[in-house]
Amino acid sequence: MDYDIPEWDMDAVKEIQRSSYGKHSLVRYELPDARPVLGQSTPIIIDVYFRKPGRPALIAHPVVGSKHNEVAELFAKTYCHLGWNAVIVHRAQHPMEGRTPEEFEQLLRNIIYNDIQVEQYLTHKGLIQSERCISFGASLGGVSNALLTSVLPYKGFVCMVAGGPIAEVMARMDNPEVDEWRQARIRELGYSGVDEFEQRYLDVIETDSLRLANRRANVLMFNAMFDRIVRPKTQRKLSRAFGWRNPSFWFPAGHATIVLFLPVIIPLMWVWSLYTLHIKR
């Protein structure tokens, strides 16, 4: 599948906020959207935690968008404290803004387009070296991250409760907000029920975590045994798609309560990150 973006003006990037914190700076940039979808040209916002040139970097993706950055910020700040640079890529649009399967697919593609632009800009400015980057995401941020394994040359990808086949995730997710959105789509599009909803999305969506899962990428997964938002059997499909050589850790937790295991997850991820950067090929 083709996810190329047209040439764009990197001089059009704006610095919209800057702060200094002892050993690192925090700069927020606004990038123009080189390939807007659905007629919406929404700027791409990134936060760059910068210590020194040449340091490895963590690329973090928020859970559901700019209003819920707690997990992404925690991981970015932790890695920065440990001597890395870090970047948070804010999501311009949520795929659930799409009212049809075709629009949902376009907005999934937009995630990839935006991340390609971010990588191009950060590389061009010497803020990262792609082969020294670990990309991280949880929940929808993990879905975003899984999509990038076949597209971007980062050294490693960490996905936490990152789902599986996207049509199955959206059809079977046990969440009031998603259920309301799903029922609205079923009514508006004249589907007979959830089964037809799932089949229609399955027929249309090409930008899918399983389709883009790259077995040759270095991937670490953290899954939840009692997840009601993304069912464990759905998470298991994505783990299998990445193959046996890429480890999956399962925790006795739900979709949100997996954060209780962050005191275990963060050290595991840190050791894996160092191993992946310096030893794994």
Brief characterization of the structure:
With 281 residues, this protein is an alpha/beta fold.
List the helices and strands and how they pair.
Elements: E1 14-21, E2 24-31, E3 44-50, E4 57-61, H1 70-81, E5 85-89, H2 101-124, E6 133-138, H3 140-147, E7 156-160, H4 166-172, H5 176-189, H6 194-204, H7 209-212, E8 219-224, H8 232-242, E9 248-251, H9 262-278
Parallel strand pairs: 4-5, 4-6, 6-7, 7-8, 8-9
Antiparallel strand pairs: 1-2, 2-3, 3-5
Helix pairs in contact: 4-6
If strands are numbered along the chain, what order do they take across the biggest sheet?
Answer: 1-2-3-5-4-6-7-8-9
Number of helices: 9
Major beta sheet, specifics? 9 strands, mixed
What separation lies between the terminal Cα atoms?
25 Å
The helical percent reads: 25-40%
Assembly category: single chain
How many beta-strand segments? 9
Strand share of the residues?
15-25%
Report on this model:
Helix content is 38%, strand content 19%. The protein is α/β, with parallel strands linked by helices and 281 residues long. It has a 9-stranded mixed beta sheet, sandwiched between helices. Strand 4, helix 1 (70-81) and strand 5 form a beta-alpha-beta unit. Helix 4 runs antiparallel to helix 6 (194-204). The two termini are 25 Å apart.
Provide tags for this entry.
281 residues; alpha/beta; 9 helices
